[in-house]
Amino acid sequence: MSTDTQQVESPLISQLRQGMRRENIGNALRDIGAGWKRRELWMTLGLHDVRQRYRRSKLGPFWITISMGVMVLALGLLYGQIFGQDIHEYLPFLAAGFVIWGLISTMILDGCQAFIVAEGMIRQLNAPVSIYAYRGLWSVLIAFAHNIWIFVAVALWFSVDLNWNFLWLLPAVVILLINGLWMSLFFGLLSARFRDVPLIIGSIVQVLFFITPVIWRPDMLPGRALLLHLNPFYHMIEIARAPMLGHPPELNNWLVVIGLALLGWAITLFFYSAYRWRIAYWV
Amino acid sequence: MGNYPVFLLGLPVAHRLLGLKETLVASILLENVSVSFPVYNSSTRSIKNRLIQSATGGQIRADGATQRISIVQALQNINLSLKSGDRIGLVGHNGAGKTTLLRVLGGIYEPNCGRVSVDGSTVPLFDISLGMNQESTGYENIILRGLFLGLTRQQIKSRLDEIAEFTELGDFLDLPIRTYSAGMQMRLAFAVSTSVVPDILLLDEGIGAGDASFLQKARERLKHFTDQVSIIVLSSHSEELISGMCSQALLMEHGQIVKHGPTEEVLALYRAMRGQ
User: Fold this and answer.
1) DSSP characters for B185-201?
2) Which of B133, B155, B202, B257 to mutate to test the interface with A (most CBs of A within 10 A)?
């Protein structure tokens, strides 16, 4: 092994040139497809990740449910007072929004870490690297399956009108996961190379929590509809929250989320084609 | 030969006589493969510095010092061709590029330039306990390890009894493996890892097998296992291990191949190079 210090063009550029060969787009798609086929592996890994976090605790993963419950109850009582809201309407609204927000934000935050935490496996296992993104999404989905019961409990308690519209939640979660996959691949890739990306994303997500109507209602923001509608996270929350509260889904929310998926996947495929092969070197 | 029915004569029989599995002819071909790593430190990994770099552009570039990025040339112009039946040992100093070469063969590192074509299912066994979960039971870990090796859950279940029996761990298999001794964990990892026969096996420093009482049994299983594998690439510092398993060897130095030939010749050269 020889080490020499040389004047080079930025390695990112030369790697890009190498990565932009046509066959790499095929390789990237194959990687994502082959990753899907290894689902028995990443489902098991994702499940182990969740169990690992709650190992040897009496209640195990039900702590996910409990901590979400405590959070919703405390915030609900407090902000219900502050905003002068009727608790019967506000608490189900908050519970639904919070559960969905939890799904979206952990998809992004865990996505940033997808490749970083899998360092050891990436360097020893000849599996498609996309399995680490799938694995993260799977554990987020498991957490979501625990959290949704908080909403169900609140909804039953306050006798929310649960109707057939609720079924719209299913396609909503699917499109959110499709968005989550590109986010994991894209931010995971970026984070593997630049280690402050997860920190930057972390603080952005924190701000987004407050500017997205999760604890406040969209109608509390009169005259600033633009701020609301330009925020894709509002639409992502809304496609899932509306059916949970018994409302039919709105077309424009869906259009934005589908548009986000298309745009996100286009950008991700570009970067993933170009730089996927560098991930093993970066981690 | 005369006892074979006529329709069995031909290729399958030839394969059986050669000790090959009927379906596969594994091969590895490397052409002009080079791998280099830019060495990142915290400053090149920081987005802030990159932004500043691109904002101030040419000036810093002209300064030179901050723009110099250490490049480690881990492999240079490697040409290698292996076919079914080959057992090859990689020797060389630490950092000669042996592990990097194994990772290229395993498809973990895609090279900067050159062509790699590998035919056949490849299993890198660098760490046979990779992916074992301390909190999960022995049985769960058998399944987990099996999935890592590319088996389906169904395939693992059909081998579960055989693997469990070989480990001799009995009821311990129902306990989390953090309660196991190191030797017991090794047995488990060994039993699972040798239950799947790949076409191409990549080994770093061989396969450890735990305590002495187990060793004889493990050795037999290992022999049976390695005999079925089509191509083995073994990187090791132990000449004994290499000459015991490999018919040919590859001496590497500074990421380049110094010599590729029969094991004894290569090991002799290696000894000479080290001044012994």
Assistant:
1) HHHHHHHHHTSS--SEE
2) B133
Q: Residue B208: its pLDDT value, please? A: 67
Residue B8 lies in a domain: no
8 Å CB contact between B250 and B80: yes
Please check whether residue B15 lies inside any domain of the structure. Answer: no
Which phi and psi angles does B117 have, rounded to 5°? -130, 125
Whether B139 and B106 map to the same domain: the answer is: no
Alpha-helix runs per DSSP H in chain B = 11-17, 47-56, 58-63, 98-105, 138-148, 153-167, 182-193, 212-228, 239-245, 263-273
| A8 touches B: beta carbon within 8 Å | yes
Specify whether B133 is located in the same domain as B114.
no
CA distance A32 to B77: 30
- Do B114 and B241 belong to one domain? yes
Does B162 lie in the same domain as B77?
no
pLDDT given at position A26: 87
Do the beta carbons of residue A106 and residue A147 sit within 8 Å? Answer: no
User: Does B90 reach chain A within 8 Å, measured CB to CB?
Assistant: no
Domain assignment present for residue B16? The answer is no
* pLDDT over 80 at B276, yes or no: no
Select from B184, B76, B180, B195 the least CA-distant residue to B134: B180
Asked if pLDDT for residue A256 goes beyond 70, the answer is yes
**How many domains is chain B built from?**
2
- A102 to chain B, minimum CA–CA distance in Å? 27
Q: What is the ipTM of this complex?
A: 0.80
Q: Hey, which of A109-113, B26-30, B197-201 has the most confident mean pLDDT?
A: A109-113
pLDDT tens, position by position, B228-268:
899 999 998 888 888 888 999 999 998 889 999 999 999 99
B185: domain CATH number is 3.40.50.300
**For B171-179, what is the mean pLDDT?**
91
- Same-domain check for residues B225 and B136: yes
CA distance A95 to A89: 10
Residue type, B225: F
CB pairs under 8 A between A and B: 101
**Full residue range of the structural domain in which residue B115 is found:** 33-120+237-273
Is the residue at B1 inside a domain? no
Please answer yes or no on whether A1 and B97 come within 8 Å at the CB atom. yes
* Cβ proximity of B33 and B75 under 8 Å: yes
